[in-house]
Every structure is written in structure tokens, then in C-alpha cells.
Design a protein that fits this description.
The chain is built from 16 helices and 19 strands. It is an alpha+beta fold.
Length: about 550
């Protein structure tokens, strides 16, 4: 322990008051040996034989007590010696006081569960005369040292704080970034408390635009990532700075509807985009994680991609909305068998619109040979729909992928399977492009904010192609596979359903995309089954709110 530290027993609980470092009282484990088979501070002599086998309850209790007592005393060296990785443990334990500026704390262990000991930390952060309480829970695990046989704390950064990862640092100070007050297109304030899915988005926007939004920094406790490109994660705001206003393209009403819609399912994502401008109106995920599935996900989108495939076939003169299209129950292509859902077929004389609205796979597969270009779909994706270009939305996004393929893999791409990779932002944008005929790169903050270069497709869809695509999507919403989901949506509306099969997954992912007037939205529900059953209602909820 550091000089001046004193330990007393109060009511059967170890209470430690440390001098020098400025620590206050620590509630520590009561009972136990206090020096059982641990490192520094242990009563065991070097002449004792090395222990093996499972840890005893006394070893677990004694080692965790010794470690927490040393940490409590600010003795980073002593505490790290009680771990199985001293060199990694000491800097983080020392940084608890020196970098995070914890001036007072109470660590209260709970009962051990096997070799794991949970504990709560109730601390006070003190920085330049400003203080604020801070509390959290974590746990440690006791293991037997491989070479020494001693009971040691299995070192992980999460021992200090549950969100600390390898190479990250806990810090308190004046933030290098000013706070932002993000607002929607109508000046309504957007917070992660009211709109949980926006938490990672707002943190990224603050990192990128905080220094230019006109605000002043406050004092914060944060986790500084080992990855220089990753944003810091704020854990506590000690004092608030003056936030600068940052206008986004989001719509609070659509965002609220999106948040509620995805909560109905275990894993779901939705994005809404304004076709005439590319403005992102809503982004929501359930669950909310640092990885934004709606914007960064990579999955096969199933039959929703038939919007793009239909555009290609109409452009090539191989299909028209009102022209005949064969739709047998199954078809072979280069040794690969493709079939429709439940092996349905359509009668002779059925139109391409009927095949699209009923989501007939075979009607699309049968036309592949006539395209006479294995790379045609990849070119259509890039040149018309902007897929795979470097989108500058204002936050990190994955911008879709349709690789050039041949044979059966190329055939699978035509129906949104195989190597096609999309997220709901990509599919909402594809729907928006089909609606207007021109790709407008999605944005979540106006381009005028930083004059960044937006991605542009090399050409638009011919007017007659866009018109036919829109007609077929209207049919899908009126009487096709999207009818039930879109029944409650008003305005000029259209849709496309999708069910994406995933290897090793018993139930398909549910995909749905649609538009109402000048709003397009797309959703995916993991293992949701048919597109109209799960993802469809999510899209409908957002379109009703934002239309």
C-alpha cells in the first residue's frame, strides 16, 4: 500500500482510507485469509511447493481481496503483481487515478460465483475543481498461475471497467471535441436517450463535426480507443460545454416510428430516404450496438434486388412491364436448380409485372442467357444505382456490393442471393433510384456542411424504364406480395418483398422495401421469414409516419 494508507474493520467489512493519492473509503471483502496463494502481500513462503488443481474457495476469496485492497490503495504495482499479466495490468490500474482522475471510490465485492467475483465501483471523478459521482459494475476471474501455481487475477482490461478493451485507455479531461446538439430537419432536438438507435450515429457526428459546429468542450470521462480511427466513447460528462447546433437530414417523426417498429423484433433494421434528394430521414436498429447494421451490414437482400434486375432486363429490351414472361415452378441453369416459393407457377400468358409482383424467381433466371453479359448486373448496380461507390453520407457506411460472377453464382445474384451484399440503406437507395430514375447519394448531414464530394452514378435510368419499375412496384403493393403490409400506407405507393436464405439458418431473413410519395424505406428482420410478414410492417410504420 502507499504510505499513509490505513485499514480498519468496521462492522465486519474492510474499510480502507488512503492518504497521498486522495482516495476515500473502500468497502472490501470481509473474512478470508487475506494472503492466500497470491503475489505481493501473500504470507506464503517461497519454499512451499507449487500448487496444482482447482482453486479453493479460500484462494478465490483471498486473492480477490488482496487485489481489490491493493487497487483501492492506489498500489498499481502491488495489484498488478496479483494478476497473470503484470506489464499489461499496471498502466491501467495506475491510470485509474492518474488518467481517469478518480479521487474517491468505494469498491464493493459481491459473492463469488465459481471463480468469478463481481463488484461495484462507486467513484467520484475530480478534475480541476469539478467533481461528479460515477458508478458501474464489473467482475474479475481468479485462475491458477501456470508456472507459479499461485491464485492470480486473470487480467483483462474489463477488470478496471467493463467497456475497456485491449489497448484502450480510461481518461478524464477537457474533451478535444465540443458537444453537439443534433437537430432534425425541423429543428427538433435528437438525443440518444429519446432515439436510442441514434447513439452511435450522434457520437460519430460529434467526432467528425464537433470542432466546426460552434460549441465549446466540457469535462468528460471517456475511453480512448487503441484504433486511432475509432471515435472515443464517452462514459461520463462531468461538466457540459456549450453545444454547437448540427442540423441533420433526419425527421424526428419518422425516426420515432422507426425506433418503435424495430423493437417488435429481436433483430431488425430500417432506413428511410427521400428519393428526390437522398436525404436520410430515419435509421433504426434493434438491438443497438456500436456496429450499425442498418448502415454497415452486409447481407443477401433476396428478391428485393429484383428491382435492379428488372431494370437491367427492361433496359436490355428483354422484358416489359406488360409483356409476357414465363414463370414455371422451377428451372435449371448451368446445372443449378432454382424454384419459386413453395414451387408456385403462373399460367401461360402472365406478364412480367405479375412475375415481379408475385416474386417469381424463375421468370428472372430464364432470361439470363439472353443478357449475354455475365457482368451486366454488376455494371447496372454501379453505373445506375451507385452501388459500390464511395458514399460520403456523413457517417460510416457500407455501400453495397454486386461482384462480377459467372454461371450459377451469377444466376443467384439475379434474385438477390449468392455473393450480393446489401444493407437496408443500400436497398432504400435502390428503391429511391427506381422511383426517380436517378441515383442521389444518401446523406445524413447536408453536403453544404463541409462541401464533401458526393458519389454520382455515371448515368440515369431511361424514363420508360423508371416508369415501368414504378408501375410494377405499385402492383406489388396493390395486389402482390406486398399488399397486406402496405394496406395501411397512403399516397402513391409501391413495394417489393424478399426472403433471403442464409446457410445454416432455418428461417429466411425477411426483407421489404417500398415507397410512399417522396419517401422510400427498406427493412430487414433476421429470421423473419417472408418479406411481407415481418419487414413489411416495419417499412409501413415508417412510411406512414414520414409520408
Amino acid at each position: 500500500m502507499r504510505s499513509g494508507a490505513k485499514v480498519a474493520v468496521v462492522g465486519g467489512v474492510f474499510v480502507l482510507a488512503a492518504g497521498g493519492i486522495g482516495y476515500g473509503a473502500y468497502s472490501m471483502l470481509g473474512g478470508g485469509d487475506g494472503g492466500t496463494d497470491a503475489g505481493s502481500g501473500s504470507s506464503r513462503t517461497a519454499s512451499q511447493e507449487v500448487k496444482t488443481g482447482p482453486l479453493s474457495e479460500a484462494e478465490i476469496t483471498g486473492t480477490s481481496e488482496d487485489f481489490l485492497t491493493a487497487w483501492a490503495a492506489g498500489d498499481a504495482k502491488g495489484a498488478s503483481a496479483l494478476t497473470n499479466n503484470e506489464s499489461a495490468a499496471e498502466p491501467l490500474l495506475a491510470g485509474f487515478a492518474e488518467d481517469a482522475h478518480v479521487g474517491k471510490a468505494v469498491i464493493t465485492p459481491g459473492p463469488a460465483v465459481g471463480t468469478k467475483v463481481p463488484y461495484t465501483v462507486k467513484a467520484t471523478i475530480s478534475y480541476k475543481g469539478k467533481t461528479k459521482p460515477w458508478s458501474y459494475a464489473s467482475e474479475l476471474t481468479v485462475v491458477r498461475g501456470v508456472t507459479t501455481g499461485k491464485a492470480l487475477v486473470d487480467w483483462e482490461p474489463s477488470v478496471v471497467h467493463p467497456q475497456l478493451t485491449e489497448g484502450a485507455t480510461l481518461r478524464t479531461g477537457e474533451s478535444s471535441l465540443a458537444q453537439i446538439e443534433a437537430v432534425d430537419r425541423n429543428d427538433k432536438v435528437l438525443t440518444k436517450e429519446k432515439y436510442p438507435s441514434l447513439g452511435p450515429v450522434l457520437e460519430t457526428l460529434r467526432t467528425k463535426y464537433g470542432s466546426t459546429a460552434g460549441g465549446t468542450p466540457g469535462i468528460e470521462t471517456w475511453i480512448e480507443s487503441a484504433d486511432a480511427n475509432a471515435p472515443d466513447r464517452t462514459l461520463l460528462t462531468v461538466t457540459k460545454g456549450r453545444p454547437g447546433k448540427l442540423r441533420t437530414t433526419l425527421d424526428a417523426g419518422a425516426q420515432a416510428a422507426a425506433e418503435q417498429a424495430v423493437k417488435k423484433f429481436g433483430q431488425a433494421s430500417v432506413v428511410a430516404v427521400k428519393p428526390s434528394t437522398g436525404a436520410i430521414r430515419a435509421v433504426a436498429n434493434n438491438p443497438v450496438t456500436e456496429f450499425n447494421v442498418a448502415l454497415q451490414g452486409k447481407q443477401a437482400p433476396g428478391s428485393t434486388l429484383k428491382i435492379m434486375t428488372a431494370a437491367l432486363l427492361i433496359e436490355k429490351g428483354l422484358a416489359t412491364a406488360n409483356g409476357a414472361a414465363e414463370c414455371p415452378k422451377d428451372v435449371m441453369y448451368q446445372g443449378n436448380s432454382f424454384h419459386n416459393l413453395k414451387y408456385f407457377d403462373l399460367p401461360d400468358g402472365s406478364t412480367f409485372t405479375q412475375s415481379f409482383a408475385r416474386s417469381c424467381n424463375t421468370a428472372f433466371i430464364k432470361l439470363i442467357d439472353d443478357v449475354k453479359d455475365d457482368a451486366a448486373l454488376a455494371k447496372e448496380a454501379r453505373d445506375v444505382f451507385g452501388i459500390g461507390l464511395d458514399w460520403k453520407t456523413g457517417v460510416v457506411t457500407t455501400d453495397g456490393s454486386v461482384p462480377e460472377e459467372t454461371g450459377g453464382v451469377a444466376a443467384a445474384q439475379y434474385i438477390g442471393q449468392g455473393t450480393v451484399q446489401m444493407n437496408v440503406l443500400n436497398m432504400a437507395s435502390i428503391t429511391a433510384t427506381a422511383r426517380t430514375g436517378t441515383f442521389r447519394q444518401p446523406v445524413i448531414v447536408p453536403q453544404s456542411l463541409d462541401n464533401r464530394q458526393l458519389a454520382t452514378a455515371s448515368r440515369s435510368l431511361p424514363a420508360h424504364v423508371s416508369q415501368q419499375l414504378t408501375t410494377m412496384m405499385r402492383a406489388t403493393a396493390a395486389w402482390g406480395t406486398g399488399r397486406d403490409a402496405m394496406a395501411s400506407v397512403g399516397g402513391d405507393k409501391g413495394a417489393k418483398t424478399g426472403s433471403a436464405e442464409v446457410d445454416g439458418q432455418g428461417t429466411s431473413n425477411s426483407w421489404f422495401t417500398g415507397f410512399s410519395n417522396d419517401l422510400a424505406a427498406a427493412a430487414v428482420v433476421q429470421s423473419g421469414g417472408h418479406g411481407g410478414d415481418a419487414a413489411g410492417p416495419v417499412v409501413a410504420d415508417v412510411l406512414r409516419a414520414g409520408g
